[in-house]
Amino acid sequence: MAASRSAGYADSARRATRAAGHFFKEFTTSSPSRFAILVFVSLILIFTALLSLPAASTQHSRTPFADALFTAVSTICVTGLSTVDTATHWSPFGHVVIFVGVNIGGLGALTLASLLGLVISKRLGLRAKLMAAGDSNPLRSHGGVVNESQTVRLGEVGQLLRTVALSTLVIEGAVALLLYFPVVWAGYSWFEALWIAPYYAAMSFTNTGFTPTVGGLESFHHDYFFLSILMVSVFLGSIGFPVIYALSRHLTTPKRWPLHTKLTLITTVILFFAGGIVLLVLEYGNPGTWGTSDAWDTVFQAFFLSAMTRSGGFSVIDPGALYESSMLAACMLMFVGGGSASTAGGIKVTTLAVLALSVWSEAKGRRSVEVFGRRIPSDVQRVAVAVVAWSATIVALSTILIAQITKAPLAEVLFDVISAFATVGLTTGLTSDLPDPAVYILAVTIFMGRVGTVTLAAAVAATSRTQHYALPVERPIVG
């Protein structure tokens, strides 16, 4: 009797295992966007467990769950916000966990999985290419027909993955070498610099913003070489791997750059200079920021802040000391963010470019949106509008909820919420004083900002349906 009962249990376990395996296979193959969310959630849970270990804190005590979870979300989603002091709270083990996490999050969950598959099997199957393509172009998440003139063709995914891995190693390695001696000159030992320089290199290229040094960038406030290297590293991380891939193939022939590359670079440069000028004008006389500095330092710090609001997250001033007008300007820059398929967040610069071109074409009375001898199809314009609408809704709801919970000034709440959604990492100081309910809300905001509204929408829809008929047209009054 006992033997038959054991056999029955074993048979039930096998059936349950097969059913779970079948469900997982269907879940991952039917919707790459759902699989991406599953991978992100799994990584967050793993890193929450690691950061909760007593060995992860300097006090060798268990970090509260809310703080460990928030740090894990901020790490995997390459944000840089923290409810604890990063430099003093985490032990060397905790810092290693964070260092590994930001590199995983910076590469992208599906890109990393595809890279591992490429290393192991030496080739990529169609399913792996489709998953990796979802990281390189979120529009593929919808599962419909994909125009092969988009950023990276499906047949080029393997080359893109190799570019991702190589560029990450080369850029972070080069940045670490360039930062090593400035770290030593700042007063740290040669041995400490062997860790601090690579740490800052990873945090800048992944656009995360965690700082391993006590006081953040205080030791490097006037080291313009160090800060300039950080800006360059943040810029390279924020333009996106598809752009790096295109530049690696056609660096000296701009005419052969894809439209995505041109729009990303041009919009990024425009926002950098426009943001720097606006912040310089608004903050010029503010004694709480750089109003008492000399002209050169004021100009440099204004442009440094402009670069960091695009998702870098580093700061040599207290963002809470900014005038409210400057906070609003910084919020606008943060909301836009960096390039698609990059380590930056926000609605992305190409989204802004498409919307601006659409408005310009409408003002000129053109029937289509055209730029650089190319026509942008209407479905891309609809996605751009949807991204902005969903993003604004998420930011608004999160701001309302956290403002209601904390009763903090609206400007500070809005600044930190947009910083979280756009995975920037700048804070007015509000994040470190949030109660647990507000911490969880901000963590969800970070997650939704990193995963992306396109991926979230595709995960909810799961499948793409083709409509074989058209309804009668009727035009409502707009405007």
Walk me through what this model shows:
- The chain has 479 residues and is mainly α.
- It has one domain.
- It has helices at 2-30, 32-52, 65-76, 86-89, 92-107, 109-121, 126-136, 157-185, 190-205, 224-238, 241-250, 259-283, 295-312, 324-336, 349-363, 378-406, 410-421, 436-451, 453-461; strands at 369-371, 374-376.
- Strands 1-2 form a two-stranded antiparallel ribbon.
- Strand 1 (369-371) and strand 2 (374-376) form a beta hairpin.
- The radius of gyration is 23 Å and the shape is globular.
- Return the structural class: mainly alpha
Q: H/E order of the elements?
A: HHHHHHHHHHHHHHHEEHHHH
What is the helical fraction, as a range of percent? 55-70%
- Mean model confidence by pLDDT: 82
Share of β-strand residues: under 5%
Radius of gyration: 23 Å
GO cellular component, one term: plasma membrane
Keywords: Cell membrane, Ion transport, Membrane, Transmembrane, Transmembrane helix, Transport
GO molecular function, one term: monoatomic cation transmembrane transporter activity
Subcellular location: Cell membrane
